[in-house]
Design brief:
Helix content is about 40%, strand content about 20%. The protein has about 100 residues and is an alpha+beta fold.
Length: about 100
């Protein structure tokens, strides 16, 4: 999973306001307010960075244990995939 490239669903409208992303899922038109940590991942999910690279950047930015950070990242990615907000690719594939 960590060597895959997360990418935002191009059909998902999004705006970032005061450091927090607001994402609308296209399938159900629900609005999702992302916290700053999830926004950090979301903003970098452009298909050009591996999940591991995003983790490394987050680890440099936030003071949290590696285990907790990895768990939080996976929880966000899994939930985002189930809602159709993110795709995970095996190769770099920018929007």
């Amino acid at each position: 999973m960590w060597e895959k490239y997360p990418r935002q669903n191009p059909e998902t409208p999004t705006r970032t306001i005061e450091g927090e992303a607001i994402v609308i899922t296209p399938d159900d038109s629900k609005m999702h307010n992302l916290n700053p940590t999830a926004t950090f991942i979301w903003d970098r999910a452009d298909g050009t960075q591996t999940l591991e690279a995003i983790f490394q950047a987050m680890q440099a930015e936030y003071e949290v244990s590696e285990t907790q950070l990895r768990d939080d990242i996976l929880a966000f990615v899994n939930e985002s995939q189930s809602k159709g907000m993110l795709d995970m690719a095996d190769i770099s594939n920018p929007l």
